[in-house]
Each structure stands twice: as structure tokens, then as C-alpha cells.
């Protein structure tokens, strides 16, 4: 479901924007510092470009570490939320399982809140993610912020 | 973040003024520093230790909100080690509140701070206007006579007589035959 629309800013690594292809015409207008071609020309003179799959795989691996500690979870989540993207469901799944290994339910709920906030005006991303994560949420017994009522004031 | 810095500076200043020894940092004072500004109560916060803050872009802060747990809270933490499906919603919310202060909804709620800021701006601009008016009355020297209408008329006539900028500028706009502006 993920459209790969790479947007690159010279010198920095902006990542693909999470889009739902079902909604067709809707896309984020991003200011592009350089002309983007699908494959060939890049703005930085060197350095391999990481594909979306590699990015996802890297983060899934990060959170899948069996003996991950609390600091690594915090660092990973804060870094991930700092990126200009909404994480894929599989990354979040891996992160939620890491919370389970650390016996940290509060962080699991916090992650869901953060992801919803990260989607910003794109109100359909979060329900989609929850739908994708439903099996994991029921398996681990994580309630969504909506179920607990903390998404309201 | 900036607000917390200001509170901390205020805290340091107040502790200097009061000349009291800085107490060992307690979690409750750290919480107060990040909670509501209260200059009398805020003590100097040890910024070399991990701190808690509510930030949208930092979902998991450096430390938990509540460090000191009561016995009931500790037993809840023990229960958290088991299956989470056995926790009630209230327990889940309680666990959340142990680790975090504000929810994202609470962080995102609209505040009226901008009204204070704009009001303050208008107030100080108004105060400046008073200062400027006072200066006009008490500081400025007398008005130069060159601003009088009579003087200005004579000055204008003199400029025309001198043929100031006669080609494209001033005097070129004056019709010397008819004695009027073109």
C-alpha cells in the first residue's frame, strides 16, 4: 500500500512520504530542493540511497533485539518519531513487542499516541495502522488510547 | 523547553537571593519545575540528570514521570509483568499516568497563552507611546522657525528665483510666465 515517492533534500535524508494509494489524488506537496528523477540523479555526490524496504527492515531489526533495554527502546522511538514519515505497521509491531519484553505497557500506548500525532492532518493513516496492528494488539493485550479514553481530554 | 529554562533560571536566582542551600534534587521538585511555574516553590533542578518532559516529538522521555511508587503502584508494576489482557482499563490508565504526565491530547490542547503575549505587546507599545509623548513635551527643543508657513513660502519663492533644478526637477514644474504651477 506504500507509494514510493522519494523526496530528497540536498545534504539531508528525507524519506518517502507514507501515502495511501486508494486515495489517489491526495498527496503532500513538498518543496524539493533538487530535481528528483526516479533512479539516476541524486543531489548528494556520494552515498548509497537506502530504499524504503531497507529502512523498514533496519528498524524492525532494531526493535527485534531480544534483550533490548529501555534506553534503546526510548532512543529508537524518539529517533523514529523525529523522521519525516509515519512508521510502517511492521516497525510498530516490532516496537510494541519490544515494549512487551520490557514489561512496559505505558510506552506501548504512548507509541500509538505518537504515531497518531505524527500522521498530522492525514486522518486515515492511524485507523489503517490500528487495523494492521489489531492482531498484535489483541495478542499482547494492548489497549488503544481510544479504548482507554485518553485520546480525549 | 524554553519555559522550563526560564523557570530554572528564576529558580536559581531565587535560591541565590534566599541564600538557602540547594537541597538534593527530589523528583517532586523536578516535576514541579516542569509542571506549573511557582517561583516560591521551584528549586534549582539538576540538569545533569535525566529529565522528564512532555513533547510531541519525544514520545518516551529520558525518565519516567513518577519515580517514587507507593506500595499499590509497585504491585501494579508487578502485575504489568504478566499478561496485559488481565489488566483492567483503569489499571492500564494508571500505569500510563505513572510513566507520563500529559497525554498527547492534553499536550495538543489549545492554550490561551497567545492572548497574554499579544496583550503584553500592546501594553508595552502603549507604554512606549507615552514615553514618546513625554519626550515630545519635555525633551524636544522649540520648533525651528523654518517650519513656519511664512518661512516655507519665502523659501519656496527663493528656490524658484534661484531656478533650482530647472530642466527636469523643481523649477521645471513652475510656469514663470503665468506665475503658477504647470
TrEMBL record, chain A:
Component of the cytochrome c oxidase (complex IV, CIV), a multisubunit enzyme composed of a catalytic core of 3 subunits and several supernumerary subunits. The complex exists as a monomer or a dimer and forms supercomplexes (SCs) in the inner mitochondrial membrane with ubiquinol-cytochrome c oxidoreductase (cytochrome b-c1 complex, complex III, CIII). InterPro entries: Cyt_c_oxidase_su5A/6, Cyt_c_oxidase_su5A/6_sf. Belongs to the cytochrome c oxidase subunit 5A family. Its main location: mitochondrion. It is found in: Mitochondrion inner membrane. It comes from Gasterosteus aculeatus aculeatus (three-spined stickleback). Component of the cytochrome c oxidase, the last enzyme in the mitochondrial electron transport chain which drives oxidative phosphorylation. The respiratory chain contains 3 multisubunit complexes succinate dehydrogenase (complex II, CII), ubiquinol-cytochrome c oxidoreductase (cytochrome b-c1 complex, complex III, CIII) and cytochrome c oxidase (complex IV, CIV), that cooperate to transfer electrons derived from NADH and succinate to molecular oxygen, creating an electrochemical gradient over the inner membrane that drives transmembrane transport and the ATP synthase. One of its GO terms (cellular component) is respiratory chain complex IV. It comes from the Eukaryota. One of its GO terms (molecular function) is metal ion binding. GO terms for biological process: mitochondrial electron transport, cytochrome c to oxygen. Pathway: Energy metabolism; oxidative phosphorylation. This is Cytochrome c oxidase subunit 5A, mitochondrial. Keywords: Acetylation, Heme, Iron, Membrane, Metal-binding, Mitochondrion, Mitochondrion inner membrane, Phosphoprotein, Transit peptide, Ubl conjugation. CDD domains: Cyt_c_Oxidase_Va (cd00923). It is a peripheral membrane protein.
Automatic annotation (TrEMBL), chain B:
Its main location: mitochondrion. It is found in: Mitochondrion inner membrane. The keyword Plastid does not apply. It is a single-pass membrane protein. InterPro entries: Cyt_c_oxidase_su4 (IPR013288), Cyt_c_oxidase_su4_fam (IPR004203), Cyt_c_oxidase_su4_sf (IPR036639). One of its GO terms (cellular component) is mitochondrial inner membrane. The chain crosses the membrane at residues 117-135. Pathway: Energy metabolism; oxidative phosphorylation. Keywords: Membrane, Mitochondrion, Mitochondrion inner membrane, Transmembrane, Transmembrane helix. PANTHER family: CYTOCHROME C OXIDASE SUBUNIT 4, CYTOCHROME C OXIDASE SUBUNIT IV. Component of the cytochrome c oxidase, the last enzyme in the mitochondrial electron transport chain which drives oxidative phosphorylation. Belongs to the cytochrome c oxidase IV family. Component of the cytochrome c oxidase (complex IV, CIV), a multisubunit enzyme composed of 14 subunits. The complex is composed of a catalytic core of 3 subunits MT-CO1, MT-CO2 and MT-CO3, encoded in the mitochondrial DNA, and 11 supernumerary subunits COX4I, COX5A, COX5B, COX6A, COX6B, COX6C, COX7A, COX7B, COX7C, COX8 and NDUFA4, which are encoded in the nuclear genome. This is Cytochrome c oxidase subunit 4. It comes from Gasterosteus aculeatus aculeatus (three-spined stickleback).
Amino acid at each position: 500500500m506504500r507509494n514510493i515517492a522519494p523526496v530528497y533534500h540536498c545534504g539531508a535524508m528525507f524519506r518517502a512520504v507514507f501515502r495511501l494509494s486508494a486515495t489517489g489524488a491526495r498527496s503532500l506537496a513538498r518543496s524539493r530542493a533538487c530535481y528528483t528523477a526516479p533512479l539516476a540523479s541524486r543531489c548528494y555526490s556520494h552515498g548509497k540511497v537506502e530504499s524504503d524496504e531497507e529502512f523498514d527492515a533496519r528498524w524492525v531489526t532494531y526493535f527485534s533485539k531480544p534483550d533490548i533495554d529501555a534506553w534503546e527502546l526510548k532512543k529508537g522511538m524518539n529517533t523514529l518519531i523525529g523522521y519525516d514519515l509515519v512508521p510502517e505497521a511492521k516497525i510498530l509491531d516490532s516496537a510494541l513487542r519490544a515494549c512487551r519484553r520490557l514489561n512496559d505497557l505505558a510506552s506501548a500506548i504512548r507509541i500509538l499516541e505518537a504515531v497518531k500525532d505524527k500522521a498530522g492532518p492525514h486522518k486515515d493513516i492511524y485507523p489503517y495502522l490500528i487495523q494492521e496492528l489489531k492482531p498484535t494488539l489483541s495478542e499482547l493485550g494492548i489497549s488503544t488510547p481510544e479504548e482507554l479514553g485518553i485520546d480525549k481530554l | 523547553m524554553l519555559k522550563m529554562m526560564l523557570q530554572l533560571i528564576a529558580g536559581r536566582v531565587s535560591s541565590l537571593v534566599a541564600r538557602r542551600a540547594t537541597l538534593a534534587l527530589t523528583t517532586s521538585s523536578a516535576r514541579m519545575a516542569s509542571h506549573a511555574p511557582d517561583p516560591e516553590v521551584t528549586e534549582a533542578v539538576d540538569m545533569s540528570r535525566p529529565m522528564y518532559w512532555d513533547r510531541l516529538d519525544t514520545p518516551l522521555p529520558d525518565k519516567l514521570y513518577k519515580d517514587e511508587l507507593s506500595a499499590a503502584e509497585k504491585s501494579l508494576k508487578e502485575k504489568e509483568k504478566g499478561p496485559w489482557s488481565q489488566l483492567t482499563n483503569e489499571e492500564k490508565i494508571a500505569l500510563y499516568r505513572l510513566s507520563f504526565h500529559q497525554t498527547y491530547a492534553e499536550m495538543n490542547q489549545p492554550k490561551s497563552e497567545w492572548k497574554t503575549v499579544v496583550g503584553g505587546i500592546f501594553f508595552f507599545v502603549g507604554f512606549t507611546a507615552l514615553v514618546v509623548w513625554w519626550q515630545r513635551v519635555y525633551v524636544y527643543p522649540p520648533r525651528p522657525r523654518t517650519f513656519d508657513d511664512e518661512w516655507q513660502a519665502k523659501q519656496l519663492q527663493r528656490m524658484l528665483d534661484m531656478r533650482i533644478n530647472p530642466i527636469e526637477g523643481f523649477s521645471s514644474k513652475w510656469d514663470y510666465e503665468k506665475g503658477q504651477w504647470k
